[in-house]
Design brief:
globular, 14 helices
């Protein structure tokens, strides 16, 4: 194979036996790291994997390997491995390693069925999958399954996911009736469910506009639905039936419960306004990534409880020198969207602050509709 082409390298991670129970270990970057005692005594090959119903993959977080984006698994390696698992009729479990040394150690211990990590060559960086020699049937199955066309398809699907309209929705006006003090048809619901939160209902209204532009039937490519764009898995956690996920009252009530959970998870941030910003960021990007950014800020001597400081590190989580830092637990993040999300909500909230609480009635005029789907979040800058 030419070194400048893109291919899966089925290099044996455990190879070159040197006597009973000992074998040289080839690291993902192709260096021999010496002999070790074999820790796995029973071969757990394709038949056993299918019986167990699970394929375990080790990798390291990064844009080419694996990252979570709005609850969806992205990254070329992870997407390919997910399709492989589907073809084998099993589920995929992805285990993240701290670094390549951790990846090699865990493979030697028999913690996974394969490891995926980009192999650096003099000419390029080529994807490499590493499979223990004790799994010849799995290696054979992958060899039959893989093709260059399949890899190209995965790359195309990832780009479509990242570049497609984030949310399919009707576009409603950001203010229904400014003179009448009505932001949306759902002001009464925001007022009702923000009371237990002790949030200004207009802040939740601004968040709702950012999520769905007040369209109760909005749906994202990742599967989030409704006014507050709740993912099905999150709905289950919050006790929201999927049959009710587009119901405005049920959707807003569930979102309020989720916001309360997120605020509680940042209870170490005593300033209320700051805590709200952290909760908003976690709603969009995940609390685990926000905690990583806080750890990086703290490491640099910045204020880990001030959003203006932490947001800088949310952005930096897209850079290897930051997402590979040992204090980072959840790896790579596309942080630009999350930072813009908080900023745009705060901007709109400032516009809404002049609106006095006025519950819409049945005679409230309906907002005009624009059937065109938005291509991006409002005013969201590109990464």
């Amino acid at each position: 194979m030419k070194s400048n082409s893109i291919f899966i390298l089925l290099f044996p991670l455990l190879a070159s036996c040197h006597g009973p129970g000992k074998e040289n270990v080839i690291a993902p970057w192709g260096e021999e790291i010496g002999s070790t005692e074999t820790t796995t005594t029973d071969a757990f090959d394709l038949d056993q994997i299918q019986q167990a119903g699970e394929l375990i993959m080790l990798t390291i977080s990064g844009p080419e390997t694996y990252y979570d984006y709005h609850g969806k698994v992205l990254g070329l390696h992870a997407m390919l491995c997910k399709e492989l698992a589907d073809s084998l009729g099993v589920r995929l479990r992805i285990e993240l390693c701290r670094d390549t040394a951790d990846l090699v150690r865990r493979m030697k211990q028999g913690d996974a069925d394969l490891a995926a990590y980009p192999l650096t060559t003099p000419d390029s960086v080529s994807p490499g999958w590493y499979i223990p020699t004790e799994k010849p049937l799995l290696k054979e199955a992958i060899t039959r399954w893989y093709s260059m066309a399949r890899m190209a398809q995965m790359r195309n699907e990832e780009q479509q996911a990242l570049n497609s309209p984030t949310v399919q929705r009707k576009v409603y006006a950001p203010m229904l009736n400014r003179q009448g003090g009505i932001i949306s048809r759902y002001d009464g619901l925001f007022q009702q469910y923000c009371q237990p939160l002790h949030w200004d209902w207009r802040l939740m209204a601004a968040q709702c506009y950012q999520e769905s532009t007040f369209d109760p039937d909005a749906q994202s490519w990742a599967g989030a639905r409704g006014l507050m764009q709740i993912m099905p898995a999150t709905a289950g956690h919050l006790g929201l039936e999927l049959s009710q996920i587009n119901n405005p009252a049920q959707n807003i009530a569930a979102a309020a419960r989720y916001i309360a959970e997120l605020e509680k998870s940042f209870s170490d941030i005593h300033d209320r306004r700051e805590r709200q910003d952290f909760a908003l960021a976690a709603y969009n990007g995940g609390a685990h990534h926000i905690r990583d950014a806080m750890a990086l800020a703290r490491l640099d001597g910045r204020n880990a409880h001030r959003w203006s400081d932490v947001s800088e590190y949310v952005l930096k989580l897209s850079q290897p020198q930051f997402y590979n830092n040992p204090v980072v637990k959840s790896g790579y993040m596309r942080g630009r969207e999350t930072v813009d999300y908080v900023r745009l909500i705060r901007q709109r909230y400032q516009q809404y602050r002049g609106v006095r609480a006025a519950t819409p009635t049945s005679s409230t005029p309906q907002p005009s509709r624009n059937a065109r789907h938005r291509k991006k979040y409002d005013l969201k800058s590109e990464e």
